[in-house]
Amino acid sequence: MKELEELFENNRQWAQSTVAGDPEFFKKLSRLQTPEYLWIGCSDSRVPANQLIGLAPGEVFVHRNVANVVVHTDMNCLSVMQYAVEVLNVKHIIVCGHYGCGGVKAALEGDSFGLIDNWLRHIKDVYRMHQQDIDAQPTEQAKLDVLCEKNVIEQVANVCTTSIVQNYWRAGNELTVHGVIYALDSGLLKSLDVEVSGPEQLCITHILK
How far is 115 from 51, CA to CA, in rounded Å? Predict the structure, then answer.
């Protein structure tokens, strides 16, 4: 375990400084988690959910995968969503992508990396649906930025059309799904003006176009 000693030391220092600021922090945290937010984000190590939205442990429930994709056959993602919605009763689901996403870039450029190509197929489908808009962009960077944004919007639609969210809304519960994107070079989040609070909004917004 010598290779991890630095990490253990970092952990000890973090725990000590946290207790110094709030002696009851870990006792309270161990008893219950009551987050209002489910964060579905990219696995990219440069996009840490808690830190970039300034929330403490216990305040955001997190699921991350390559390129923040929501697939209706992904039991991992669906299990996280169901637990967050039906057990934790989160009020918001945030789908967060980021500019410069390597998974989105690979899908756009048609690169091949082996097994992950099957996962990137979902993003290639997003590109195909929006190819005219994306190809019309003046630079390769602009094309990538637009596909990163379109990918978030499509994943918001996928969240909203799961049986988990549909049934929750049908039962009269409050839940809003948001689409946001993160800029690595500024550290800032940007709203994509996509917010869905009920099934009726899926018919009147641009989200499924």
Answer: 31
Q: Which helix (H) or strand (E) holds 192?
A: strand 188-196
Output the six-digit token pair for 83.
Answer: 């637990």
For residues 29 and 15, is the Cβ–Cβ distance under 8 A? Answer: no
CB-CB contact of 120 with 67 (8 Å) = yes
State the catalytic residue, choosing from 44, 77, 145, 178.
44
Terminal-residue alpha carbon distance, the chain: 52
pTM, 2 dp: 0.92
**Dist. CA 85–CA 25, nearest whole Å:** 25
Rounded Cα distance, 153 and 52, in Å = 20
Respond yes or no: is residue 98 known to be catalytic: yes
**Residue range 157-208, pLDDT digits in tens:** 999 999 999 999 999 999 999 999 999 999 999 999 999 999 988 764 445 4
